[in-house]
Automatic annotation (TrEMBL):
Phylogenetic lineage: Bacteria, Pseudomonadati, Pseudomonadota, Gammaproteobacteria, Chromatiales
SUPFAM superfamilies from the UniProt entry: XseB-like
InterPro entries with a match to the protein in the record: Exonuc_VII_S, Exonuc_VII_ssu_sf
Gene Ontology BP annotations: DNA catabolic process
Family: Belongs to the XseB family.
Assigned EC number: 3.1.11.6
Record keywords, A-Z: Cytoplasm, Exonuclease, Hydrolase, Nuclease
Alphabetical list of Pfam families matching this protein: Exonuc_VII_S
Gene assigned in the entry: xseB
The protein's name: Exodeoxyribonuclease 7 small subunit
Reaction equation(s) it catalyzes: Exonucleolytic cleavage in either 5'- to 3'- or 3'- to 5'-direction to yield nucleoside 5'-phosphates
Organism of provenance: Candidatus Thiodictyon syntrophicum
Main location: cytoplasm
Length: 90
């Protein structure tokens, strides 16, 4: 029996763009509950794909710079999102 190849994940930039659009739609608050859950699930999938792509890129950079004293890796940190007050809905 022939194995069906899984489709390759979309490019990082495409996944990130779609993820940003999902976040904007969820923050806007106009989606139904079901649409919000579907969007959230897609967002989680995209987040995992983006994280895997970044980890793969980081590993490639480490391999390429291994043994170079002038190439000292620095951890990448992202600024923490500001904590906002919960929405008040009657």
């Amino acid at each position: 029996m022939k194995k069906v190849a899984e489709p390759s994940p979309p490019p990082f930039e495409q996944s990130l763009g779609e993820l940003e659009a999902i976040v904007a739609a969820l923050e806007k608050g106009d989606l139904t509950l079901e649409a919000s859950l579907t969007a959230f699930e897609r967002g989680v999938t995209l987040t995992r794909a983006c994280r895997a792509a970044l980890e793969g890129a980081e590993q490639r950079v480490r391999i390429l710079t291994e043994g170079r004293p002038d190439a000292v890796p620095e951890p990448f940190t992202t600024p923490k999102a500001p904590v906002t007050a919960p929405l008040d809905h009657p």
